[in-house]
Specification:
This protein is α+β, with helices and mostly antiparallel strands and 788 residues long. It is built from 29 helices and 22 strands. The strands form 5 sheets. Strands 1, 2, 6, 7, 8, 9 and 20 form a 7-stranded mixed beta sheet that branches. The protein has a 6-stranded antiparallel beta sheet with strand order 14-15-16-17-13-18, with no helix packed on it. It has a 4-stranded antiparallel beta sheet with strand order 11-10-19-12. α2 runs parallel beside α11 (426-445), α7 (298-306) runs antiparallel to α10 (367-374) and α14 (509-531) crosses α25 (697-712). The longest helix has 23 residues, at 509-531. It is globular. Residues 137-179 and 585-661 have low confidence and may be disordered.
Length: 788
């Protein structure tokens, strides 16, 4: 028997990483929101690996934070170990990964949501989606007690000029459909018969839809971590016209720490100076937990091959398609027969548990086989398994039934986020949840949806891939999927997306002011490095040689030096300090090079260096013809002052110098490693008179690292920006839902079929659909021009 239980603006179904971000965003934007979870202990749960981030996933978390999401903040509060991956490669693929205390994370996330204004949390299984006729959700049954501020968000209170522009002009605004007579969502029903009315619904069901746990020949209904599955909602989605897929994922065994011999393994240390995920976290403070590396053996392989007929993957028991890029250990052994061994990382599950996780050894083999092959790994000979590995099958939809806003094309006001869209991973889910929550709120406000383009973020690549291409296997984000990854780095996520988060309303005024200060500091530092020249002083050349870099024969800019692969930003500031470049900028007539460079306390010009008129260094660097100080530095052969500055006995006062100036050179450092910042670098920031509240070590390191990347990769970045300019032209050519592709006879038959199914929102999106050729794209452009 059904009964009316309440009215909400937005209902979110599922409390995992997608649901948590969606509910938090909707509530923080002022909408009365309800979050439903089968078990409240599943909110923010980490049923698979106890980590956040990783290759490309770390970028996603940083982007979530830049937009105003919460995953990065909770991860920072619960970190056990942090490491920047791919540091031996270029910054385009640097990715942050942190080991997380999974229970602490879950508790912190649940508590955060419990404290959110406008958000109610309910334990219930949702079994039905209520719809009504019409192309727009009902706007008239919001709770009578909604505050005036919340009412301002409703369609009735939005002026015509604030309403979403026509879809003919802006790609993606078809979100509010006015051309199709499709049903609109109006609520949900729980297994107990409770009816909750809603103007928008977000489905973030994870792996719960008709979930089945599989261990060997044992199959039973179940969700992750032994929780109940959601058995009834799938049928309703089928009834509404959605295409349902059957997918599979898996997880390794959890084992007892005290049964492991760690002496047979290799310890994996975290970073000495860990990098936070959130731009609001000044520094991470935690007691690091150790991670260890072990490898399988020939005996491991023999056990698995001997028992492969008992594997559900190979005997046909599993029907769902598994993740290509995260295969089980039995899949690795069979697919990569030439590999003698496979690695596994022994990772902590939490601070207050002896349970550890065997990264890289997911399996669905029978429990006895699991125990046998695990004990063939050095260090695990006496292993005690606490939770066996398992596979889980679950239902998902074909994400091509969605718009780029993650709203359904079949039911207005119904959004989807996370693994129900075919993705895998906490980070991918959270990113989609945040976008769905924002766009559900935007729908109710009558605003155009937030669409992150492929050139703006990994979030955009993720959603565009799912919605445009679809997937037949669990989709995993990777750096190789992002064609503009040099511009989508982990370090500049805030520069790319924080303005959007601020405009949406999820970034505070205080944080936005700090962001603007950081942006200005980066511009100032890049400008100063570009215009500051240093002479070929003996000490400079000695330092360059100590770095394995070529000597200079004449004055060069710091920018030219920083472009050398072997030099970093700390090096150029050490060099600048030798020549008095930083402090001479403030007060050249009172400055001896090293005396002032050596101590930040000696920067007397801090108080009056705020304006460019008083910052002599910038003026002199910009107009050397007006500056004796810069002339002398740039042309030492014409300047007695510069000659004296270049002589080693004057460069290092009080020290006896050798003939090549190599004595007492500053120690090399890397500002990303936690070593002290060069005094000249600190001095530069103080001379700018930035807000002392933000002038923290992290601020200076972040700005310096960003400036270094921009200088070193200037040419590559410019080339990618040119590519993006071409990309944007096609993205801005909007296609409406009303295009009859079958009537465009210049399109190939395959293109007509694919375009009719996907209904792309722009020419750019159409070109990324499998089967649509460059010739078809040209035909579409001609069609739009003829249409006017």
């Amino acid at each position: 028997m059904r009964f009316e239980a309440g009215k909400y603006d937005i209902c979110v179904v599922g409390g995992g990483h997608a649901g948590a971000e969606a509910a938090a965003a909707a509530a923080r934007l002022g909408f009365k929101t309800a979050l439903f979870a089968i078990n409240l202990d599943s909110i923010g749960n980490m049923p698979c690996n106890p980590s956040i981030g990783g290759t490309s996933k770390g970028q996603l978390v940083r982007e979530i934070d830049a937009l105003g999401g919460i995953m990065g903040k909770i991860a920072d509060k619960t970190t056990l170990q942090s490491k920047m991956l791919n540091k031996t490669k270029g910054p385009a693929v640097y990715s942050l990964r942190a080991q997380i205390d999974r229970r602490h994370y879950q508790i912190e996330m649940k508590h955060y949501l419990e404290q959110c204004d406008n958000l109610d949390i309910k334990q219930a299984e949702v079994v039905d989606i209520l719809t009504e006729c019409g192309s727009m959700p009902d706007r008239n049954h919001a709770d009578e007690n909604i505050s005036p501020a919340e009412k301002a968000h409703t369609m009735e209170n939005i002026s015509p000029t604030e309403k979403a522009p026509s879809a003919e002009n802006i790609p993606g605004t078809e979100n509010i459909s006015q051309t199709e007579n499709i049903p609109a969502v109006c609520g949900i029903v729980t297994a107990n018969g409770a009816v909750y009315r809603a103007r928008a619904v977000i489905l973030a069901t994870g792996t719960y839809l008709r979930g089945e746990i599989i261990i060997g020949d044992v199959t039973r209904p179940g969700g992750p971590d032994g929780l109940f599955p959601a058995n009834y909602l799938t049928q309703r989605l089928v009834d509404l016209g959605f295409t349902v897929l059957r997918l599979k994922t898996g997880t390794p065994a959890r084992v007892s720490r005290k049964s492991i011999d760690f002496s047979a393994m290799e310890e994996q240390a975290g970073d000495a100076l860990p990098t936070p995920f959130s731009h609001e976290t000044e520094e991470l403070a935690f007691e690091e937990r150790k991670v260890f590396l072990a490898h399988t053996t020939a005996e491991t392989r023999e056990v698995i091959v001997r028992n492969i007929h008992r594997s559900p993957i190979y005997n046909g028991s599993i029907h769902g398609v598994g993740p290509r890029y995260c295969p089980s250990i039995e899949d690795k052994v069979m697919r990569f027969a030439d590999k003698e061994r496979h690695q596994t990382f022994i990772e902590p599950m939490g601070r207050d548990t002896e349970e550890v996780y065997l990264q890289g050894l997911s399996s669905s083999l029978p429990e006895d086989v699991q125990l046998e092959f695990l004990r063939t790994i050095p260090g695990l000979e006496n292993l005690s398994v606490m939770r066996p590995a398992y596979a889980i099958e679950y239902d998902a939809i074909d994400a091509r039934d969605l718009r780029l806003s993650l709203e359904s094309k079949l039911v207005s006001g119904l959004f989807f986020a996370g693994q129900i869209n075919g993705s895998s991973g906490y980070e991918e889910a959270a990113a989609q949840g945040l976008v769905a929550g924002i766009n559900a709120a935007n729908l109710l406000r009558g605003r155009e949806p937030l669409i992150i383009r492929r050139d703006e973020g990994y979030v955009g690549v993720l959603i565009d891939d799912l919605v445009t291409l679809g997937t037949r296997e669990p989709y995993r984000m990777m750096t190789s999927r992002a064609e503009y990854r040099l511009l989508l780095r982990h370090d500049n996520a805030d520069l790319r997306l924080t303005p959007k988060g601020y405009e949406i309303g999820l970034i505070s005024e205080e944080r936005y002011r700090a962001f603007l200060s950081k942006k200005k500091a980066i511009d100032d530092l890049c400008d100063w490095i570009s215009r500051t020249t240093v002479p070929p002083a003996p000490a400079v050349n000695a330092y360059l040689e100590s770095c394995g870099s070529a000597r200079i024969q004449s004055g060069v800019t710091l920018k030219d030096l920083l472009k050398r692969p072997e030099l970093n930003v700390a090096d150029v500031f050490n060099i600048a300090g030798m020549t008095g470049a930083v402090e001479n900028a403030a007060a050249p007539e009172n400055s001896t090079a090293v005396e002032k460079a050596g101590s930040s306390a000696n920067f007397a010009a801090v108080e009056d260096a705020g304006s460019s008129a008083n910052f002599a260094a910038v003026e002199n660097a910009a107009a050397p013809e007006n500056s004796a100080a810069v002339e002398n530095a740039a042309a030492p052969e014409n300047s007695a002052a510069a000659e004296n500055a270049a002589s080693p006995e004057n460069v290092f006062p009080g020290e006896s110098a050798d003939t090549d100036g190599a004595r007492n050179l500053p120690a090399r450092s890397d500002i990303s490693s936690g070593e002290p910042l060069p005094a000249g670098l600190v001095g530069f920031f103080r001379l700018q008179q930035y807000d002392r509240i933000i002038l923290t070590p992290r601020f200076m390191r972040d700005v310096s690292q960003e400036a270094e990347i921009l200088v070193k990769y200037e040419g590559y970045i410019a080339r990618q920006e040119q590519q993006i300019a071409q990309f944007k032209k096609l993205e801005n050519m909007a296609l409406g839902d009303d295009v009859d592709y079958n009537a465009i006879k210049t399109l190939s038959l395959e293109a007509r079929e694919k375009l009719s199914a996907v209904k792309p929102e722009s020419i750019g999106q159409a070109g990324r659909i499998s089967g649509v050729t460059p010739g078809d794209v040209t035909a579409l452009i001609v069609y739009l021009k003829m249409k006017g």
